[in-house]
Design goal:
The protein is an alpha/beta fold. The protein has 25 helices and 26 strands. A seven-stranded mixed beta sheet has the order 20-21-19-18-22-25-26. Bound molecules: adenosine-5'-triphosphate. GO terms for molecular function: ATP binding; ATP hydrolysis activity; ATP-dependent peptidase activity; sequence-specific DNA binding; serine-type endopeptidase activity.
């Protein structure tokens, strides 16, 4: 099927050149003419009111008729509307495409020989498809907001002639005049339809992008406008409250601090983000304080601040010697450790752990190490710590959250390589709030502490430059995993002589200075110091000694301010006057030998100590009663002792009948102090033998040793501590396991001079030494 669009037209039609528009058939459009143009136009028109509109080609020929495009549109003048301001609006309607074959001048007007162009449309699948697609595309274009007069829309819906449709849509698509002209000249309607379709497609694409951009812009403008308004409002409120200036100053300060902090880039990102947030929060809200405190911590952490190490080992040695008396072996090991540290720049070495009784100088050694290296010193006690958060901090979501102690201390210290002393690792606890020991492990482990992440800070902080030193009174309770990472250095107690020397060189000058006596320092007589050591203290270290010296100094200071005569020398009598009656007695020397009471030696966390094991018997059913806060191991040791005596009692005249109808009670005063360990085994055997054989035990003989069921005496720990305690108590002879003989070399010579040592393999030998003959 085919359709022909045709019209009968005169052979010669008035020709009107128009530059600004390309007229299409079916198009109704206005043409505005000035007065003189109108006059010419009207003159030219004939009765049939037809005129052919053509576009002149650009290159105008001088004089004569200008060249025109070949194809133009024959139009009918529908209306001439004179305008009040002059000129007129001519309403024209496109009627048909025409080919202008010749242009002539007639009566000063142009006339064209026009041939109608027949537009054949082959109805085919292609044309149908094109019409449908074009329609669909038009609808899309409309949905993007391209306005189209309603009547045009209706027309489009009605048109089923592709040639007409193509012309109508050509009007609708925004095309430059030249391209419009090309479309006009495309005679084949299908070809025209295709071209129009292409143009419309790119138009839709353009509209689509424009739409997206516009939507984005609107969104952004909307958001920023809203923010702007809110911020302005906030500013006004703040101004009224007089907060704006301080807040701005605070923010500038914070920014400066963050700039200067030298944070790693990922931390810097977090800080910047938080700073942005803080600027938007109302300063009166609690959230502001939380965010500010967080930023303060972030900016205040010593990300890059470090002290320069003094690597001179000789100086380190001099410092250690200056601060501490003796402790040769300990100093030697510290210096070795420092030397290795110096040689291997970034040592992932073990952590030093000082183990020893209180007051022997563990903490002050740490301070000296810091002084020797030129580092800052931090001390933190882990005693009783049960909450993991104390080490690792609370997450910021908790109200009142703060960083853990490690981060807090480093923040306060201001450098990232201090000597960090963790006191009392043996007293670290564990409960439902987590396991601080495992958190501590993370802090101390050189493999992972370079990215230690505190819950509060929430960004990693490098702890690998910190030199951690731990201290403990006893090693046993320290969790094995921690112990594994530490290099243990043991410090034992001091002898009276050593204490006296420490007092003279360090404690007295320090207390004299502290108590304002530097101008008139009293001289402490040696005997006075010994008196304090022996009669007023009973300790492995020198803490109480220092306290008593301080007390004497305070009394002297008081007398000076009261105007009393100056005490030039502190004699034993003055000590007694100031400190009152002696607090400790020589327990052993002052006691008589008794049946069933034996002196033992124990090792506690405060150093060595003497204990008395008492045994008594009464009528009963052969039971063993144990009192005195004994631990499980000690109770078992008592049972073993009793079994041994029952099995071997005959050797000392103790028959099996001795145990019949008898209860044996073993008590170890002081009853309130918990005691444990196997080393009192030998003492218990001797107490029972003494009781049952009725042979008094020598009070001035003290013993220590674990026993086996066959009576062998097994090695024990802490001999030095025990011997020092024995000496303090006035013991004359110490009975110890033969296997501990090698520990004798740790014991100072002056002590060896005062105490006799008996090393035994079998408990029977000990009985000989301790029990008096019948
Ligand atoms: N060998 C020594 N030379 C000089 N002063 C010493 C010596 N040993 C200890 N002191 C002094 O004794 C006091 C107590 O020592 P410090 O506080 O270091 O004990 P500690 O072993 O850390 O005890 P604790 O286990 O209770 O923490 C300090 O003033 C210290 O200077």
């Amino acid at each position: 099927m085919s359709e022909t669009v045709s019209i009968t037209i005169p052979a010669v039609v008035p020709l009107y050149p128009v530059r600004e528009i390309v007229a299409f058939p079916y198009m109704i459009f206005p043409l505005f003419l000035k007065d003189e143009e109108l006059a010419r136009f009207e003159e030219m028109l004939e009765d049939d009111q037809l005129v052919t509109l053509v576009r002149p080609r650009d290159e105008a020929a001088p004089g004569g008729i200008p060249p025109f495009f070949e194809v133009g549109t024959l139009c009918k003048v529908n209306q001439i509307q004179h305008l009040s301001e002059g000129g007129a609006k001519i309403v024209l309607e496109g009627v048909a495409r025409v080919r202008v074959t010749e242009v002539v001048e007639f009566n000063h007007h142009l006339q064209g020989h026009c041939e109608p162009i027949h537009e054949f449309v082959e109805r085919s699948m292609v044309s149908e498809a094109l019409v449908q697609s074009l329609n669909a595309l038009l609808k899309i274009a409309l949905s993007y907001g391209r306005p189209l007069p309603e009547d045009v829309m209706k027309m489009i819906d009605l048109i089923d002639n592709p040639a007409r449709l193509a012309d109508l849509v050509a009007l609708y698509v925004n095309l430059p005049l030249d391209e419009q002209q090309q479309l006009l000249e495309t005679i084949d309607p299908l070809e025209r339809l295709k071209k129009v379709y292409m143009h419309l497609t790119s138009e839709v694409q353009r509209l689509q992008v424009k739409g997206e951009v516009q939507a984005e812009v609107t969104k952004r403008v909307g958001k920023s406008q809203k923010e702007y308004l809110l911020r302005e409002q906030m500013k006004q409120i703040q101004e009224e409250l007089g907060e704006e200036d301080t807040r701005a100053a605070e923010m500038t300060d914070l920014r400066k601090k963050i700039d200067a902090a030298g944070m790693p880039s990922e931390v810097r990102k977090v800080a910047d983000k938080e700073l942005k947030r803080v600027e938007r929060i109302n300063p009166a809200s609690p959230e502001y304080t939380v965010a500010r405190t967080y930023l303060d911590y972030l900016a205040g952490m010593p990300w890059k601040n470090a002290t320069r190490d003094n690597n001179d080992i000789n100086k380190a040695e001099a410092v250690l010697d200056e601060d501490h008396y003796n402790l040769k072996k300990v100093k030697e090991r510290i210096l070795e450790y420092l030397a290795v540290r110096t040689l291997r720049e970034k040592m992932k070495g073990p952590i030093l752990c000082f183990v020893g009784p209180p007051g022997v100088g563990k903490t002050s050694l740490g301070k000296s190490i810091a002084r020797a290296l030129g580092r800052k010193f931090i001390r933190m006690s882990l005693g009783g710590m049960r909450d993991e958060a104390e080490i690792r901090g609370h997450r910021r979501t908790y109200i009142g959250a703060l960083p853990g102690r490690i981060i807090q201390e480093l923040y306060r210290c201001g450098t990232n390589n201090p000597v960090f002393m963790l006191d009392e690792v043996d007293k670290i606890g564990l409960d439902f709030r987590g396991d601080p020991a495992s958190a501590l492990l993370e802090v101390l482990d050189p493999e992972q502490n370079n990215t230690f992440t505190d819950h509060y800070l929430d960004v990693p902080f490098d702890l690998s430059n910190v030199m951690f030193i731990t201290t403990a009174n006893q090693l046993d309770p320290v969790p094995a995993a921690l112990k594994d990472r530490m290099e243990v250095i043991r410090l034992s107690g001091y002898t009276d002589e050593e204490k006296e020397k420490i007092a003279v060189r360090y404690l007295v000058p320090r207390e004299v200075e502290e108590n304002g006596l530097a101008k008139n320092p009293p001289a402490f007589a040696d005997e006075a110091l010994f008196k304090i050591i022996r009669d007023y203290t009973r300790e492995a270290g020198v803490r109480n000694l220092q306290r008593n010296i301080a007390s004497v100094c305070r009394k002297v200071a008081k007398e000076i301010t009261q105007g009393k005569p100056l005490r030039e020398t502190i004699t034993p009598a003055v000590v007694e006057e100031f400190l009152g009656p002696r607090t400790f007695f020589n327990e052993v020397a002052s006691e008589k030998d008794r049946v069933g009471v034996v002196t033992g030696l124990a090792w506690t966390e405060t150093g060595g100590d003497i204990i008395f094991v008492e045994a008594t018997r009464m009528k009963g059913k052969g039971e063993l009663i144990l009192t005195g806060s004994l631990g499980d191991v000690m109770k078992e040791s008592a049972r073993a002792a009793l079994s041994f005596v029952r099995a071997n009692g005959a050797e000392w005249g103790v028959g099996e009948t001795a145990f019949a109808d008898t209860d044996i009670h073993i008590h170890v005063p002081a009853g309130a102090i918990p005691k444990d360990g196997p080393s009192a085994g030998i003492t218990m055997v001797i107490a029972i033998v003494s009781l049952l054989s009725v042979r008094p035990a020598r009070r001035d003989v003290a013993m220590t040793g674990e026993i086996s069921l066959t009576g062998r005496v097994l090695a024990i720990g802490g001999l030095k501590e025990k011997v020092l305690a024995a000496r303090r108590a006035g013991v004359k002879t110490v009975v110890a396991p033969a296997r501990n003989r090698e520990n004798l070399e740790d014991i100072p010579d002056d002590v060896k001079g005062e105490i006799a040592f008996v090393f035994v393999d079998d408990v029977r030998e000990a009985v000989q030494v301790v029990l008096q003959p019948v």
